[in-house]
Every structure is written in C-alpha cells, then in structure tokens.
Amino acid sequence: MAMESSHHIRVLVAKPGLDGHDRGAKVVARGLRDAGMEIIYTGLRQTPEMIANAALQEDVDCIGLSILSGAHNAIVPELMRQLRERHMDDVLVVLGGIVPEPDIPALKAAGVAAVFPPGSRMAEIAEFIRTHAHRRPFEL
Amino acid sequence: MARRFRSPYRFRIRLNQVLDWTTISGVPVQPVYTAADLPPDFDLDRDLGRPGEAPYGRGIHASGYHGKLWTMRQFSGFATAQETNERYHWLLSQGQNGLSVAFDLPTLMGYDSDDPLAAGEVGKCGVAVDSVEDVEALFHGIRLDHVSTSMTINGPAAAIWAMFLVAAERQGADWKSLRGTLQNDILKEYIAQKEYIFPPAPAMRLVTDTIEFATRETPRFNPVSVSGYHIREAGSTALQELAFTLRDGMEYVEWALRRGLDVDAFAPRLSFFFNAHSDFFEEIAKYRAARLLWHRVMTERYGARQARSTALRFHAQTAGVSLTAQQPYNNVARVAWQALAAVLGGCQSLHTNALDEALALPTAAAATLALRTQQVIAHESGVTGTPDPLGGAFFLEKLTRDLQDGAEEYFRRLDAMGGMVAAVEQGFPQREIADASYRYQQALERGEKRVVGVNAFAGEEAAPSILYIGDQAAAHQGAKLERLRARRAAAAAAASLDRLRRDAGTGANVMPALLACARSWCTLGEICAALRDVLGTYTETAVA
To answer: Which domains does chain B have, with CATH numbers?
Structure first.
C-alpha cells in the first residue's frame, strides 16, 4: 500500500468555555471545509479535556479554538497540558476570537501557533493551516 | 523574485466603484424607485397610519420625540459589582438616564463564580453576580425606583429578577413603581446566542411564570424583551431578524394565553430589542415593518383590544458585529449612522457601542464617547424634530413592504412547523442564520461587500488603549461566597431550595419560591442547580 496517499488535513473546530457566540466558529468550519479540509465541529461548552479527547479520537492535524469571552488564559494552557498528556503536542493549535494584544506572547509561548483576530480572511487561515499542520509520523 | 506590479491608479478606480448593489442582507437595490414600485392603491395614512395612530408604521407617538427623547441606556458591566457600580455612577453623571446590566458568562449560565466551570470567565464579559449581596453592591447609591433598569439575562432570568426584586425591597422601593426590563427571551438563546440552561419547554414555562408574576406584581416592569439583536449578530439577514423575533414574541403571547392570562393584561408590557446594523434604509424599514406586523398579529391573531397591546416599543443597539478591530476609530462613524437609523426608525431606547468593542470591553473614555454620539444626534442633528421624516419615500416604503411580506412568509413556514419551539428543536432558524452568515462571509472574501479598513483601504493604525480585566474578580467573588455561606442561616437556605424544587416539579409559578431563595441568601448557582435537578438541561446538536 502506498504510504504517501494525499491526506486531507483534519481540523477540529472547538468552542471551549461557557460562551455561546458560535458565528465565527461556524463560518470558519464551513470555510475550511470549502478549502478541502475535513472538519469536525465539537459544538458548544467543551472543556479542555473534552477537546483533547476529541482531538485524539478524531486523529486531527489541527485544533482551531474559537474564544471570544476572555477565558483564553485559563483554557489554552490547560488544553496544552491535556494534549501533552496524550502525546498530542504535535497537533497544530490555532486560536480565533477576541484576544487582547498583551496576552498573545504568553499564548504563543504556551504553544498556540497563530492568533486570528476579527476580520481575518478565510484564505489566510486555510493557508496557515495547510503550511503548518504536519503531524509527526506515527511510531510504534 | 519578481513582484507583480499593481498600478496604484487602477487600484483606486476599482475602489471608487461599488461592485455589489444589494443591501447588506443581499436584497437587490434598483438605481431608482418611483411610485410604480408601490401598489397602485398605496395610501400612506391608511397603510401605515399617521404617527401615533394604528397600525403604527410611522411610530407610536404622535409627536415623535417632542414629548420625550429616547432613553439613553448603555449596556455595561465588568469585573465585580463594585467596579461596575462606579461605571454606572459615572454614566448617570454624564447624562445617561437608564441602566443596563451586562452579566458575565458564569452568571448567564447559572454558575457561581467559584464553580470549576467558571474558571477564567469571572467578570470577563460582564459583571459577576452570585447573590442578592452582589445585586445590592451593583446598585449601591442608586434608587431602583428612580431609574429604569434593564437586565440582559435569559437562562436564569427568573432567579436574577427575584434577586433584583429583593434588593429593591431592601432599599424600601415599592415593586409597583419599579421600571425596567428583563431580557428573558429564551427562544433567541436556542436560535442564536446559545446561553440556555434548560430544555425549551420548561424554559418557556419559566418565562410564562415571570409574565404572569409581572402582570400582578410589577405593572411597570417589562418581563420579556423579545430580542432580534443576537439573531442578527449571529449572522442573520434583516428579514430573518425581523421574522424570527416577531414569531418569538408571538410564541410568548401564545404561552401566556394558554396560562389563562388576558391578552390586554400582559401584552402592553412586552417590549422588543432590535439590532441597528449598517444598512441604513433597510434598518429603518425593519423597525417600521416590525410595528406594522406586531399591530396586525396582536389585533387579528390574538384579539388584543387595547391600543397599548398592539403598539410595538423597542430598544436598539448598534451592531457589535459590524465593528472592526482594524482601524478601530472608523467604528465611531459606523456607530453614529447605525444609531441615526434607530432614531429615524423611532426607537424608545438606545445603546451605542464603543469604538473598542472588537478589541475588549469598553474603557470609560470609549463608553463616554459612545454616549456622546447619542447626545449629538439628539441635540444637534435636527432629526428629532418630526417623527418618521422619511415616511413616503418610495425606496423606504418599498423596503418596508417587502420586509413585511417576507416576514409573513416566514410566519407561515414556522406555523407549519408547529410554532417556534418546534422550529427551534428542528434547528430551522439556526440553519437559516448559519447559511446567511456564510453567504455574507463569502461576499466579503470575494470583495463584493467591503468593510473599510478590513478588505478595502486597509492599513495599520495605532491601536487605542483597552480595558484589561484580570483574574482578580474571581478571587474576590470566591472569598465573598465563602463568607456568605458561613454567615447565612443554612437551614433557611436549604428549606427555600427544597420549596423551589417542589414548586418547579408541580408546575406552580416559581416566582414566590425564587423570592424566598433570594431572601434566604441562596446563591445563583444553588438556585440553578435546584432547577436543573427538576427541569433538566439542554444540549444542542452541533451543526457546522
């Protein structure tokens, strides 16, 4: 069997925290699907643990978090810890929503590859994921 | 590597043309409108009524704003009750004349600030309220019978209202003189904003309990503000906002009628809340169409006899979704004309967004500028001189009529589904909105729709300084809750919660039990946990 089969990038679009504003998450999910990616949308009110479990089960290449509530400083480090526990820290994690500029360096240090503010173009988000989502080859 | 050369001259020519002649909702706009675009028998006085006359297309007051300007009511809340109270005193001192409380997400979802699910969220999107103690701190130094207070709360609305009524009672205020509005529109939570707790049917029962209670106990308080704002923010068109909101309002009327209430006893206290979005004429037409439709359904469908039951009153808020993080000062211009549309559409109350709201919650300076924008419109623009000054314009009348017809068509489809609760359970309005939202995003990506500073005339600009809310509120609320639980009479609190579980289970009106809980210092988290035990919780089927 050819191991080099062209592989659809799998993206988990996740909406953590208590916030229910899901317009951004839904628009991005559809946009990435139209860009040829496979999208799994978690729905609302996911804890970091639920997101890490979904990422593992769905074997995704990328997690796209949508957070508008200001809870990113609590949610992102916890998600990263949960991913490390599952040896999933090679999954590309990107964040979209309302994130104050001063918070961005700490989020990047925690492992967020990119933060997309309101007004980001779909093409830009898709291009970033395509360029950076490369999981390590599976090793036994 | 060679770079493609773009002539700046050609670039400018393209940007000086509008590529897409549709409204922001995608409705085609002709170059010219004439009388031929209206029905041959169109009669402004008969079809819309003169200002202050049924069917209220031109407004609910004969003299427009001559008697009274709209209420300038800035939605505000952040961090702790003490900090928000300071903002309220500042806004009132600057000429604001109504309060509007923004609660944080744990409060909106019915969790105490020290609940594990509240981690990182306390005080971030609004003010944290855990008990009557916090409500008292929120309104410290403000007489609740002297100012009208709007509260944006839905899932736990009945519980928060009970806390508000107890705080008012402790100030010595008579409930009969309290003026204000509880948002309490749970249907649009399932449709758009998604801050629901209980399943739709028990949640509708709680809303009906508040309507019934208000009818008896708080005759000047609006127990429900039927809200299109969030539907629009979720990406709907103007027509969808109009149709779903009015059909939601009709659903509340039907539940109250089934409860045995007289339509004229509660309908005058139902109020509405619409978005003031960017498409100027479409928005003005939307408000006019809303009044015409509401008058028609209240008289024809529900047999209302009193004029006040059929005259739609509304609050408007400028469109948060239209604000840009890029070149944020442009937002001042957007907010000004959105607010102007609301005023020309005859709003009773208005919130203007602050320029920094795509970045964070507003600073005091940004919130003050937003209030000043309303004051400039009210006192300098001259548009308050006469009601519905654009009435009779062919374009506006055509838009108004088409919105009415489109909403009637949606009513028929929603009725056929079995009403709004059934439609929500089938995910119909949710899908319609998600589709519209994606269509708009595609139009933006293709450059057919333009947003200045984002996909046209983009360029970096210095960012304003923003309000940064740290995590101190969580620690403060946690300590306060610990002291409260230690201090209160535990047996009385437990007994009130038992009574609440019992009443929620039997179908009795829960308001008396909720008031007892508030008086015995039960926390919002405890009250909502008791209600969840009995009423259950709701999880939507995620569709993207």
So the answer is: 40-445 (3.20.20.240)
